[in-house]
């Protein structure tokens, strides 16, 4: 397969963004609010450990699911396309999984439901994101990455808002599931997809999931810098609900998470598309990613040294400014270091391990720090240091300006 050259139409970009809105609503309604409340209800004496175990197991499933379903979609030869079927299958599985979470009577079923949600929603994400390098020319990828970032950001807001507003954990899960259906169907009905013949289908071998960073150093550095920046961000937000409750002393922490998320989203939306378009026009990616990462690190330092409600508001605003540019430009950068056009879905899935693996490690790092090694100030300083390291190392990528 060759790189696409025909510009994508605004309608396709809008529907892709809408589908990503539903996807990330289904992800972040649980992550931001529902899982924390459910852990607190089912295991009130050990809520931090319960949330860490459930979140970590789910993230471990996503580490497997994203590259696996990306590889499967690369090799799908159905006439209706190779990405759309897995978008539909993933969305349907996500709806069923959220239903399991809605009725979970204990931590074990809660963990199983969240693992199922991570598996299926990551199948949908792998197919959605692989459609971009399939169909979008290089000169438009910052812009399209920006609109994907809009969908992701609004998904965080809508997910948190629905979870906090509907009244009840079970209803929160069900409303997020219904919203996923409503936002995904229009994208599926557009039926714009790429196809391959059976003779073009590459073999699928376990060893193909290992992409040698010595042979493909730019891919390796891109993966590692994304991992560090996401690890810093995951460490910062994994216990945000409990930070507001126990450190800040905010009276209504679940509503507080929604307020902070809305502020973060507002500032993010002010930079996410502009940053991507600006990067497309000047033909540079690394400088945008570097400065965005440093701004995100500054937000963590605000939380470390100003643990108040006002400080949390400032940190949310600063984080949004940096993460907006990072979302659009880093996605475009990643699509430019993929080793092979025939394996875009699989390779983007491997890249996305750098998003999900930090979710596994963040609770492991955060739990002992919060409980025994200095508390939230130490946690947020660590978050900032990891983010700065990722920002600096992006300059080790040589093939992208």
Automatic annotation (TrEMBL):
Membrane topology: Multi-pass membrane protein
Major facilitator superfamily (MFS) profile domain: residues covered: 218-401
Signal sequence coordinates: none
Subcellular compartments: Cell membrane
Annotated keywords: Membrane, Transmembrane, Transmembrane helix
UniProt-listed SUPFAM superfamilies: MFS general substrate transporter
InterPro entries referenced in this protein's UniProt entry, alphabetically: MFS, MFS_dom, MFS_trans_sf, Sugar_transporter_CS
Residues that span the membrane, as ranges: 12-29, 49-72, 84-102, 108-132, 144-164, 170-190, 223-244, 256-278, 287-306, 312-329, 350-370, 376-395
The keyword Transferase is annotated on this UniProt entry: no
Cited PANTHER family: MAJOR FACILITATOR SUPERFAMILY (MFS) PROFILE DOMAIN-CONTAINING PROTEIN (PTHR23528:SF1), PTHR23528
Name of the featured protein: MFS transporter
Organism encoding this protein: Actinophytocola glycyrrhizae
């Amino acid at each position: 397969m060759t790189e696409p050259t025909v510009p994508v139409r605004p309608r396709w970009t809008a529907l892709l963004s809408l589908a990503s809105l539903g996807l990330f609503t289904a992800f972040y309604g649980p992550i931001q609010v529902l899982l924390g409340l459910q852990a607190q209800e089912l295991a009130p004496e050990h809520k931090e450990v319960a949330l860490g175990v459930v979140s970590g197991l789910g993230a471990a499933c996503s580490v497997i699911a994203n590259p696996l379903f990306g590889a499967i979609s690369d090799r799908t030869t159905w006439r209706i396309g190779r990405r759309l079927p897995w978008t539909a299958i993933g969305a349907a599985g996500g709806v069923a999984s959220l239903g399991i979470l809605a009725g979970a009577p204990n931590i074990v079923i809660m963990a199983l439901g969240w693992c199922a949600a991570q598996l299926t929603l990551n199948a949908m994400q792998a197919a959605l994101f692989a459609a971009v390098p399939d169909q979008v020319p290089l000169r438009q990828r910052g812009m399209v990455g920006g609109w994907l970032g809009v969908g992701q950001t609004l998904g965080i807001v809508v997910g948190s808002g629905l979870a906090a507003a509907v009244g009840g954990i079970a209803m929160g899960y069900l409303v997020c599931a219904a919203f996923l259906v409503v936002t995904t169907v229009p994208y599926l009905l557009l039926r714009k997809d790429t196809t391959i013949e059976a003779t073009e289908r590459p073999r699928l071998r376990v060893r193909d999931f290992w992409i040698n960073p010595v042979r493909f150093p730019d891919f390796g550095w891109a993966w590692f810098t994304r991992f560090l920046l996401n690890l810093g961000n995951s460490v910062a937000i994994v216990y945000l609900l409990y930070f507001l409750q126990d450190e800040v002393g905010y009276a209504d922490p679940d509503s507080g998470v929604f307020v902070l998320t809305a502020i973060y989203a507002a500032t993010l939306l002010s930079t996410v598309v502009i940053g991507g378009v600006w990067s497309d026009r000047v033909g540079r990616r690394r400088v945008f990613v570097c400065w965005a990462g440093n701004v995100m690190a500054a937000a963590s330092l605000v939380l470390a040294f100003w643990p108040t409600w006002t400080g949390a508001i400032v940190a949310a605003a600063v984080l949004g400014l940096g993460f907006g540019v990072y979302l659009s430009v880093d996605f475009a950068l990643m699509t430019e270091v993929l080793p092979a056009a025939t394996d875009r879905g699989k390779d983007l899935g491997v890249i996305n391990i750098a998003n999900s693996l930090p979710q596994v490690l963040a609770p492991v790092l955060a739990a002992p720090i919060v409980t025994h090694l200095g508390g939230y100030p130490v946690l947020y300083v660590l978050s900032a240091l990891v983010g700065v390291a990722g920002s600096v190392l992006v300059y080790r990528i040589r093939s992208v300006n």
